[in-house]
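Late entry, written up from scratch paper. The run itself happened at the end of the previous shift, but nothing got recorded in the book at the time, so transcribing now.
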Amino acid sequence: MQNGVVGSLGIPDAVFARARRVADGIGRSAADLGGAVSVDADELLTGRAGLLRLAPAGRISAGGSTRLLATRDGWCAVTLSRADDIEAVPALLELAEQPTDVWAALAAAAAVRAADEFVARARMLDLPAAVLGEVDSTPTRFVPTWHCAARAVPELLVADLSSMWAGPLCGRLLAAAGATVVKVEGRGRPDGTRQGDPRFFDWMNAAKLSYAIDFRDDDLRPLLAAADVVIEGSRPAALIRRGLGPDQVRGRDGRIWLRITGYGTEGERADRVAFGDDAAVAGGLVGDGVEFIGDAIADPLTGLAATRAVLDSLGRGGGEIVETALAGVAADYAALPLTDGSKSAEPPRIPDPPQVHAPELGADNRRVRELIEARLATC
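Output as recorded:
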């Protein structure tokens, strides 16, 4: 894309313009439903970069965990953000031990292989990887599933089972609009961003209640049954294997079950893991010369799209499964028409710190259980 850029993040003007329209729509929809929120799209797209002083360096992502690699017939992206990802590199490269320079070894291996072949092998090892532009624009999917019921935003109990950025951003915006949002984390496996810079975790989660569980049936099922909105950010089969999928837990009339995935919920792509930078590459959302734009740009764009979709569903009375995918959202933005190339000199926005820190893991367990009991008693 050859649009204008903002600061050092290289985000095209057209992307900002579309995101601002989505943000304005969130504000209007929330107001129509008894809530109130003002959404600053520019801050959401650049805020983490501003907080943590991040910027993409050409073919190295802003966070440093994802790289664009030239292949024999095109480009691909690989993310090594988890310890397991790095440990899988020798198997990907068919080596007996870890190479001294992991990225140099990956670049050399990719250069002599077709992009599809290289990425397919990476995905066999559960590595986040993508072929540039492999995904077309995918609209949000609404699947009517349950009876409808009218509810205002301040009446909502939201179970946020997601982690990282896109799903938590949706929960953050719903909380800002007046909903009661419960952030659900595993006792032994909390949201990975909780272990990172606390400024980002606070930005996304300060307004939520913290509920720490073991993700067993008896811990989670009552919350899913009591919630008006469920935000799920794992691969589709994760909860279903535990008997806790949207069709396996009876919910309140009007419940909205939001599924945020990397590549959708159907077919082979449903099992693919994705992060914001490699998903953006899959959707073709890159800059001139095949370089990264923004900071994990597919995450905040998807968080905005998901919030708008939840409010749209709420306006119809809910009772729907709502599905949106990081790569599909990125492809939608990548398809925007080019502009005149004008540039803005605005630097990344640094969000104001929240008035309180995010609660400690499990700090609100008693309160959440009381909310669940009160709601289930009236059903």
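Residues 219 and 366 are 12 Å apart (CA to CA).
(Scratch paper discarded after transcription.)
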